Amino acid sequence: MTWAAWIALGAPLASAAAITVAGERLTRRAAGLLATAFTFAAFGAAVYTFVAMWGRDESDRAQVSTAWTWLSAGSFHAEQMLAYGTRIVAGVTPNRGGTRFQGAVPIFHTVQQAVKETGADATVVFVPPPFAADAIIENAEAGVPLVIVITEGIPILDMVRVRRFLADTPRTRLVGPNCPGVITPGQCKIGIMPGHIHRPGRIGVVSRSGTLTYEAVKQLTDLGLGQSSAVGIGGDPVHGTSFVDVLQAFEADPETDAVIMIGEIGGGEEELGAAYVRDRMTKPVVGFIAGRTAPPGKRMGHAGAVISGGLGTAEAKMAAMREAGITVVDGPHLLGRAMKDALGRQGRAKPKVPAARRPATLSAGARKGGGAQAAPPAQRGGKAAKKAAKGERE
Q1: How far is residue 56 CA from its own chain's centroid?
Q2: HEC sequence for the chain
Q3: Which of 20, 95, 320, 363 could potentially form a cystine with 274 if both were Cys, beta carbons 3.0 to 4.6 Å apart?
Q4: What is the pLDDT at residue 306?
Q5: Per-residue b/e over 58-73, b at no fewer than 16 CB within 10 Å?
Q6: Structural domains in the chain, sorted by start
Q7: Catalytic: 302?
């Protein structure tokens, strides 16, 4: 057992002993302070950071991920990332610079030192909630372009402070907090997702829910579709990367043919994502909204999954997604099959043209006899355009 573990185990014993002695020599306040000192000593002994590096192949520019860990969580997931093939190149923990993790990964005193020595350009953070905001800011100050935060329960005001800081450092992109991370199957895993259920493919996955991400991924793997990448954006009310950010990336990615989008009650990001799909996306999207049975005002799992003032309901989000042309399913168990069906329909139909480039034509409502108006004949092309032009000449 390490000395850090002995301190961690000794903290509660020290607390009990201090309270016992307090009746004779110490006040209870002094006893509490003594116990707190032991607790923070245990915490300080247990916190350290890992850095990982990956690339599509050995010739690619090195990418690096830093993982802040508390007790055994970060160590466990660092080992899992190593086993998946992510090349971990450095770790960070104050006062432990010069040591090595598992005898191979060098440890630095600060993130800045790790970045300077290794060229780190992505980080994954496991720091406990009270200290996570400072960890994010330290990574941004070190110039890390991508910061992935796994930590759940970061105080909202802390995240407001982080967002304000990142607004002045646009080079750094934040994913999370309270997310499972990012994975490109067969290439790199940075986070806590189970790597064995992923398979290389051409379907992108973006989700606010970690476990539902795994559900969708497993279905795609079982159906032989696989994933191009899977991104968990997190379920906290104040976070970094949004649905729109990831949808833009998938739309531009030539290795992604379609997207699964999983949202939750609360907030308005699903509606914004739906608007982007409606106006800009040419690829089919299948969606699901979790929390349909949640009562208003009750938080369901994630801090951001709460209906407040009648806003953020599952019904409103599903309606917005359907209006945008997204195939919305009633249960997560239907995501894979719905995606396979959507790909089949795409093969029999012409791809959708983004609104910005779409020629004016009859709306869906007009084609069905609704009240929408048809475009002027000259804009419709074909015989209608020729007839209109002839009338203008006359």
Answers
A1: 21
A2: CCHHHHHHHHHHHHHHHHHHHHCCCCCHHHHHHHHHHHHHHHHHHHCEEEEEEECCCCCCCCEEEEEEECCCHHHHHHHHHHHHCCEEEEEECCCCCCCEECCCEEEECCHHHHHHHHCCCEEEECCCHHHHHHHHHHHHHCCCCEEEECCCCCCHHHHHHHHHHHHCCCCCEEECCCCCEEEECCCEEEECCCHHHCCECCEEEEECCHHHHHHHHHHHHHCCCCECCEEECCCCCCCCCCHHHHHHHHHHCCCCCEEEEEEECCCCHHHHHHHHHHHHCCCCEEEEEECCCCCCCCCCCCCCCCCECCECCHHHHHHHHHHCCCEECCCHHHHHHHHHHHHHHHHHCCCCCCCCCCCCCCCHHHHCCCCCCCCCHHHHCHHHHHHHHHHHHC
A3: 320
A4: 55
A5: eeeeebbbbbbbbbeb
A6: 46-179 (3.40.50.720), 193-358 (3.40.50.261)
A7: yes
The DSSP bridge partners found for residue 262 are 207, 288
Number of Cβ atoms within 10 Å of the Cβ of 357: 8
Contact call for residues 195 and 169 (beta carbons, < 8 A): no
State how far the Cα of 195 lies from the Cα of 85, in Å rounded to an integer. Answer: 10
For residue 72, name the pLDDT band (cuts at 50, 70, 90).
low
Grade residue 272 by pLDDT with cuts at 50, 70 and 90.
very high
CB-based contacts of 97, cutoff 8 Å, min separation 6 = 107, 108, 109, 113
Between residues 298 and 323, the one the model is more confident about? 323
Q: Half-sphere exposure of 188 toward its Cβ, with a 13 Å CA cutoff?
A: 21
Q: Give 200's pLDDT tier (boundaries 50, 70, 90).
A: very high
- 327-328/188-191 β-pairing: unpaired
Choice among 109, 198, 302, 333 that is catalytic: 302
Q: Tell me the per-residue pLDDT of 299-350, one tens digit each, with 9 for 90 and over.
A: 565 555 555 555 678 999 999 999 999 999 999 999 999 999 999 988 754 4
What pTM did the predictor assign? 0.73
Query: What confidence tier does 9 reach under pLDDT thresholds 50, 70, 90?
Result: very low
